Amino acid sequence: MYVLALVTQKGGSGKSTLATGLAVAAMAHGERVALVEADAQGTIAKWKERRTDSYPHVDRIVDPTDIDPVISRLEAEGIWLAIIDTAATNNVLAMTAIARADLCLIPARPSPADIEAAIPTLIAIRRLNRRFAFILNQTPTRGGRLSEAATSLNSLGVLALPFIAQRNDHQDALGAGLGVTEFAPEGKASDEIVALWDWISKHLIMESPDHEQAALKTAC
Ligand SMILES: Nc1ncnc2c1ncn2[C@@H]1O[C@H](COP(=O)(O)OP(=O)(O)OP(=O)(O)O)[C@@H](O)[C@H]1O
Ligand SMILES: [Mg+2]
Asked: Can you name the residues that pair with 59 across neighbouring β-strands?
């Protein structure tokens, strides 16, 4: 099972929105997906209450010591991907999620303040020796400051593609208990999330220790 964690101490950067959007996009590929909410705010739990589809299941975690047992149970249940949504803080719960993740995703809006605010999270990820990628989220659909933000993030580490534009479909999907790919399958927001899931899934699998082991065995 792979574990993704959406992390950054910057509030409102899109952790929960991307967690739900990516979970549903991954399910559409036939993957068995679960969401783990490590944020007392409950954005994912409230989304789930509005949702009529019983998948993905959502587990809520309050205590850092609960992460390991929940991840082990999901793995035993045959889940292929667990996506952990964390709170806008570098608390112990968020650190435990980072430590458990195969890939940490750090959403940032294209402003210097947002990018600077992600640095403490990045330092924690590096200290825990985890893999990570930035996601440039809520980008303007026209013009403006994008290349500067992309250059800053690229200089700090890997930047996932594509950028996710600011589009109402994301907010409406969250409100409707849907993934954005379910809410407006033909929309640009949906296209971007499908493409982002494609990028993430390739990086998860290609750079996982399991894959490296398999490649090593083939080479021998
Ligand atoms: N690409 C986007 N386009 C439009 N709205 C977006 C986009 N991404 C996120 N939003 C909206 O921005 C707001 C904040 O997003 P979200 O709650 O996902 O951020 P968060 O990082 O989880 O916040 P918190 O740190 O408080 O948990 C929400 O209203 C959400 O729907
Ligand atoms: Mg959130």
From this structure: 36
